[in-house]
Amino acid sequence: MVKQDRAVRTRNALIESAAELFDRDGYEHASLSTISTRAGVSSGALHFHFTSKAALADAVGQAAVQRLEQITQQQAGSALQMLIDATHVLVRTLDHDVVLRAGFGLGDSLEHVRTGAGLRGRWQEWVEGALARAEGEGALAVESSARDAATAVVAVTAGLETLGRQDEWWLSRAPLTRFWRLMLPRLAESSCLDGLVASGTSAGTP
Amino acid sequence: MVKQDRAVRTRNALIESAAELFDRDGYEHASLSTISTRAGVSSGALHFHFTSKAALADAVGQAAVQRLEQITQQQAGSALQMLIDATHVLVRTLDHDVVLRAGFGLGDSLEHVRTGAGLRGRWQEWVEGALARAEGEGALAVESSARDAATAVVAVTAGLETLGRQDEWWLSRAPLTRFWRLMLPRLAESSCLDGLVASGTSAGTP
């Protein structure tokens, strides 16, 4: 049992270390020896857990998918508020969670890591689903399009992720709140508008 | 004269080659020997033009700034249409211009390349200026904020740039048109709305 715990800890340390190096150096340039050294693990132990760098990237991608699922499982009253909250949690999590950041990055640079490449796709699908639910709830203004809104939300969150690499302000609550403050009066049915919090509700606090 | 032409061509070939490798491998991992080989230039010629990799990155950054200036110098009737058009040209240019793409990327990864780091800042300043002019022209709806709009536009364009690395669709006209179609009825004063083209005017065709 103790042995198993240690194996899980070692595996997690390797995933965390790999995520840091993929995020910093890119998948191609991250070396397995640096990953194992940074994790405080022997090269033999790394190869026991992961047969190749691609297998390690796959594990980082899977861990990132789990993080994303935690974020999108949060509940709020309405579908639209749930979406606003999830975008806030996503962006704030990107600020400190290198696994999630690396997961998005892997998808950009590495087509063959399916789970990594799938992270943006999963996020997009979830955003589209949330907006479809909002439409079903009658919460969207008649003249606005759920599809257009999904495109804007996916682009804005990807942009904050990119801009946040250079300047952390972009991963703070302010810029995303500005986006929602601008967007909501156009997107939401007017009777729903007063109930929506552009800066996120407590469910949107990571 | 012929000699000078050749020197300019060599310098430009080195800038283009460096941009490609910075964009693909990142600044840290791009090697000077690969850059000179790809440019079809000897290592001695590279060192004649650029004393260091940082000097080469600086030249890429400066070339990217020039590209951005060309994009933001395009004229259209109103400040708001000028902004819409410039975002379209920026995004379409990112699709094929590796110097511009590398310029944005350098700023993300390399703080000491001032001109590279400055590219996002310059774009942001220009967007803010265009929205301030639109406000001065009375083209913004009273209840919307030029500052909020600038944040959204900067985030969306950075997002399209990131998403476009994985899927070129994001650098096509459609996603940005969706963003503007959603945004304009909220942002623009209603009497201006009919004159605005979310998909860009001919001035917005690169």
Report on the structure:
Two copies of one chain form a homodimer. Chain A is mainly α. Chain A folds into two domains: 2-57, Homeodomain-like (Arc Repressor Mutant, subunit A, Orthogonal Bundle); 61-204, Orthogonal Bundle (Tetracycline Repressor, domain 2), CATH 1.10.357.10. Chain A is 73% helix and 0% strand. The longest helix of chain A is centred in the N-terminal third of the chain and has 24 residues, at 2-25. Chain A is elongated and about 60 Å long. Chain A starts with a helix and ends in a 13-residue tail after the last helix. The model of chain A is unreliable at 112-117 (pLDDT under 50).
pLDDT < 50 stretches of chain A: 112-117
| Structure annotation, total helices of chain A | 10
Secondary structure class of chain A reads mainly alpha
Largest interface: A-B, 40 and 40 residues
- What is the tally of beta strands of chain A? 0
CATH class descriptor of the largest domain in chain A = Mainly Alpha
Most strands sheet of chain A: none
Task: Please trace the helix and strand order of chain A, writing H or E for each element.
Answer: HHHHHHHHHH
